UniProtKB/TrEMBL annotation, chains A, B:
It comes from Brevibacterium gallinarum. Keywords: FAD, Flavoprotein, Oxidoreductase. This is FAD-binding protein. The keyword Transferase does not apply. Signal peptide: none annotated. Residues 40-218 form the FAD-binding PCMH-type domain. Its cofactor is FAD. It holds the Pfam family FAD-oxidase_C.
Length: 465, 465
């Protein structure tokens, strides 16, 4: 059967309630982009905003029949273009499926994909429980998107990433069937690990309509240390020393351009001359947090920190964490940005950070680097100067060079944002032809016609891409 | 191409060094079984004990050419028959590939699949680091087998299962190619989650020749509580109360038949009249462990514990943990056993434990139940009386009824041992036809000729099984 988008649109309008369909081009505009702002975004046929799994199934069945591509989206905060609309495709926005139900006895939460990460955290907190994964965008990103990208965050250095908390998913497959994988069982090894396979599949294998997540008891009030360093080396040395001995609940890094952008935005009195800053937290119980923070301070001093400030006042500590979370918006004030997400094995963190500074200099662009340092996961932000096409070209060259550098250091092109469409051109270089081919085999097995989010991670018909 | 085992054997003998081949029937006997002692075990063509990834590739290429089945094995401690030899198949024993290399800076360990879990723990400990997953058999089970079954253990209630520690694997695929998935990067979302898919695949998707595991800083000395209860209900109520509020580093359960079998073997003075016993540990730092243990004691007392004994003496505490680890061998003294591994969502633990006692009574068999109670994962051991065929039949009926009961309670047929061959007949009932079919699709995509461990988890040519 040939692709027939016009029939798909007719069938959708006939089968689904009008109030869940968006068809006028102006209203659809908001559903064409995620935060990657991919200029190649297409204009969809229709945006569907289902409220039930059955409606998602109906849409997918129609799409399957007419071979029309589907792009799922949550809150549209993706950073790699995984939710960029494709031309004359169907956008399925899961924002309305946002019910949250906490079961304090099994310590699990069942959530619709459209529920925000912050809403899941808040619902858990009502029962003295905690959902740890915390992307910087946690107040505005959806839990379905988090599961689809296997999102990370700040506390992952101690508490792991999204997949470590996913116990089950209900997923609509490429043929419109809905299946539930896993469930509220902490241990379950019956059959292949399909739940884990779907986590991080960026919409290419199915559409989540419900997720079940593990919760843990509420985090203890953290103690915080902020340390500034005269050189990048001194800061990354401190990170290695810390991780070798302990598990801080947060270990974040900001370089000089980042510190300055945050200081411009907050006027909180950060040291503009510091080459780098670390923010560490410990949430150990009793006096153990302070002990851990003191040991961290010792390490920072030993590697040459110019200043260390420790506090067990939650508000003081939170101010620094907020500053770190503001880093991306603060840098976005300087211009549009190309947001990187490269990660390396921890011993190469210094080489990565220094190499990025070199790439910035060589290409005459500003790159502000912040990092979930304890994970070796960095976010170099390449600033695009408005109305300077030559600079844009240099910035894009730098963007690719940063990924090439990460690969050369044994690192990954994406630690927590996903491949989406933006990083797809580098995926083959990173995975190698054989592992890429395995990805295609799995895709083909679960979505033989390639209708699910084509172009995100993989281009179904192009095994080399 | 037709299956041609004789040619496969000729090719293996021609291609591989004689000192890694076992072909005489007497020596091969030891490689036909795992601890499931499946009476249907076949006689292999040859047992290969490779020392390099390249040798594994050679064997698999020959097997692929002649369509001869391959059964991989580690230390042969599997409990579900995942390493049962198939008639005229090739057994690949990975026991010689047991190199271990710890990188304390990345806090990772690279291990051959044949390295024992205890050896990995010991190597990590030399650097002040810890590999948490701890199947009761940790002293004799292989790390490759742990990854292949996504093994659990006692500390998983706080520290998670094997998959939570697997960062990367080198795997030989069904066509003999070797690929490396993942690596020593804490966060990596580039491409589909293939590493996680291979964990727990029980040899049905590939043969691991190297694994990379995450380590964490050494565990703190635990504080221990032992509590006895007059009824099963009182014990399971205590479990729910504990898990709702905190994360003990161990929360184990033994019922009366288990207590008595352990007491027979150890004479350590356990209360033979108790209906159930809990062993809880806390490894929180500073005074927090004792605080946690006191809160656990309070809960146990509130649900009706007859006696509680708390100790922060490591040797005293370890004695109870050893007693728990001895439970399976202690029961095996009573006769051969059918070892169950069913798990339920925590609130159904009481129903499961009571239901198992009822199944034992109805079928006139002894079932001793121990459990990783905090996970809802139980191990009912059904005792087979020697030389009583009628009793054997009743025991096998009870074995099936326990799984049916677990499924009816929203539970799983296997929490940590794997499906293997023993539990395969129940997999369709548990997963349902649609999810089973997804398993087959993935199997077909990665092993189109079905040569990898056929009959473990799935029967390649029988989509309904």
């Amino acid at each position: 059967m040939e692709r027939n988008d016009a029939h798909a649109l007719d069938d959708i309008i006939a089968a689904l309630p009008a109030d869940i369909l968006v068809t006028d081009p102006v209203s659809m505009e908001a559903y064409r982009w995620d935060r990657a702002n991919d200029p190649a975004a297409g204009m969809p046929l229709v945006v569907v905003r289902p409220t039930t799994t059955e409606q998602v199934q109906q849409v997918v069945k129609i799409a399957a029949k007419h071979r029309t591509p589907i792009v799922p989206r949550g809150a549209g905060t993706g950073l790699s273009g995984g939710s960029t609309a494709v031309e004359r495709g169907i956008v399925v926005s899961l924002d309305r499926m946002n019910k949250i139900e906490v079961d304090p006895v099994t310590r699990t939460v069942t959530a619709g994909p459209g529920a925000l990460n912050a809403e899941v955290k808040a619902a858990a907190a009502e029962h003295g429980l905690w959902y740890p994964p915390d992307p910087s965008s946690f107040e505005i990103c959806s839990i379905g998107g988090n599961v689809a990208t296997n999102a990370g965050g700040l506390c992952c250095v101690k508490y792991g990433v999204t997949t470590d908390y996913v116990l089950g998913v209900t997923v609509v497959l490429a043929d419109g069937r809905a299946v539930t994988l896993g469930g509220p069982r902490i241990k379950d090894v019956a059959g292949l690990s399909l739940t884990k396979l779907f986590v991080g599949s960026e919409g290419a294998l199915g559409l989540f309509t419900e997720v079940q997540l593990r919760l843990i008891p509420a985090q203890k009030q953290p103690t915080t240390l902020v340390a500034t360093f005269p050189t990048l080396d001194a800061a990354t040395e401190a990170v290695l020393g810390i991780i070798r001995q302990m598990r801080p609940s947060m270990l974040e890094f900001m370089d000089q351009p980042t510190i300055n952008a945050v200081e411009d935005a907050t006027k909180m009195g950060l040291d503009r001359d510091a080459a780098a800053m670390l923010i560490a937290q410990s949430d150990e119980p009793s006096g153990a947090a302070l002990d851990e923070i003191w040991r961290i301070e010792e390490i920072c001093n030993a590697t040459g920190a110019t200043e260390c400030f420790a506090t067990d006042d939650p508000a003081d500590g939170e101010a620094f964490v907020v500053a770190r979370r503001m880093a991306i918006p603060a840098i976005e004030r300087l211009g549009a940005v190309l947001l990187e997400d490269v990660g390396v094995p921890l011993p190469r963190l210094g080489d990565l950070v220094l190499g990025i500074a070199e790439i910035a200099e060589n290409n005459d662009v500003t790159i502000a680097t912040m990092a979930h340092a304890g994970d070796g996961n960095t976010h170099p932000l390449i600033v695009l100067e408005r109305s300077d096409p030559a600079q844009h070209e240099r910035a894009h060259i730098a963007y690719g060079e940063v990924m090439d550098l990460a690969i050369s250091l044994g690192g990954t092109i994406t630690g927590e944002h996903g491949v989406g469409r933006l990083k797809r051109p580098w995926l083959a270089d990173y995975l190698g032809a054989e592992v890429l081919e395995l990805n295609h085999r799995i895709k083909k097995a679960l979505d033989p016609d390639g209708i699910l989010n084509p172009g995100s991670i993989l281009v179904p018909d192009k095994p080399g891409r």
